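Morning run. Coffee first, then this:
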Amino acid sequence: MKKILLGAVASLTLSACDLDYFPNDSMTSDQMAGNPSSTEYSTDGNYSMFKDVLEYKGSEYSGSTYVRYFFQMSEFRGDNVCLANKTEDPLYNEICYNDLETDLPTSYFWWCAYHIIYGANAVIESQPEGASDEGDRMLGENYFLRAICHLHLSMLYSRPYTFGRDNMGVVLRTSTDTPATERSTVGAVYDQIRDDLVKAAGLLKDKARRGDAGYVSYDAAMGLLSRVYLYRGEDDKVIETVNGLLGGASAESKLDPDYARYFENALSSPETLWAVAHEDYEDRGRESVGSMYWTPDQRGVGGWAEMYYSDPLIALYERHPEDIRFTAYCERLNPDETGQLQVRWAVASEGTDFRVNQLYDCFRDDNGYYYEENGSRHYLQAEQEYGRTQFYVTVGGEKTRAYVDVKTESFNTCPAFMCKKFASPTNAAHPLLSSPVMLRWGEVILNRAEAYAKTGNEQGALDDVNALRRRAGLPEEALYTLDNYREAGYSSVLDVVLDERRLELCFEGQRAFDVFRNGRSLDRRFAGVQPWEVVDCDDPRILYRIPYDEISVSGIPQND
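And here it is:
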């Protein structure tokens, strides 16, 4: 009899509120049914597994958490991030589309996701529906947790739903009884995710959330359902779901007006539908999500700060540099500016397979910007794109994008533009700590915008996009209309929406999936250690490898 290795029962000690409590997955459903208070206790344990460092294969690694690996594995596949230097960390394999079936992030995430699913199933089996409002609340929360884990697994280990329902999906677990292990179809998994969220919403409706945004609610279930419908290509249902959730309210009314402090205050913000809650005592320093992107110490001590904004993302923001999403969350490491301009473009690094920036001091005269080489002036090619001047040089006979900015004293291989979305800069004791946002109204509004664009309601799509742009502090002339979006360089309203999703949701784990599920290619030809390539949506590498431990025990097929 085969069982899924990573869903097996293990004795764990989970911690919350500085207390050790009985591990939820060592309790049977019958035990929980006989002790109603244990249902809430066990549900809190399921939440905790998203953030806690769990013992895995006999040891604990302080960086191994569900939430950290999810944001790494999802975001590093995209074109928002730049890793400036080669590293021994497995994240190097993730960003290069060269992950191994033995890599710790891939293995731990798979194991932990099914561990949470097992815990959710144990609660669902123990609690009779309709026995009490509180019991139904616990049921609804666990249906949501089971759904989002299956969704994350599907996003990372299987092809998008829009590529076909019959493609091989992940292992579907709806019971603690696991007599056999096999990979379900993508369609079957997404059907279950949808059904679980509909069930969760029904159980949570008209019930107040039992705490801050670290707990899920009816709105969270419906918000995630809007994403699932979008991923399924059911655009009319996206629109219906979001409209119903708004209940006549405007999109603007659901957005936090203080966006510059939103992520730091995510747990208390009404925009947050669900975040993985962290408290001050849980600060993990360099092993936090925020440490990947930002360091509070300009000498480089504190966070690792190895992952930076990519040049294309910076260029997209610089169309409107006053954008609060840019000014509030992008910070340049070691901003010891010299006052001298520089021009840079990506060139192959000798003896390696990645690109670094070719750098020259940059000057300007009446003829434009130029750099000097061998006593000669070389003028940059200037073109107007999206209302701004873009620069190009010719390298090896090919037109190459060039960037003009202020020269700094260090970090010249790739400009170190750091992201502060996962940090708390005003928290002196724990500046790298945050409660990472998994689901928020900003995304839900953009889900509807994309659905509007695909169903022909272009004005509705632009209205939703503009709600986000107004919140970002952009002036009226930076808002899109049916008359001006083509002047801004877009061929369709859908292109506008996808770029706005990139601006609004960058580093939140959605970009690569947004590109691929829409049948598009991902252009990663910018400076960094990632291969210089365009990744097609049908490239088999976009799927993570199923962990070796799983395949060796259960025998399910690998992603090839």
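The chain is about 35% helix and 15% strand. Good start to the day.
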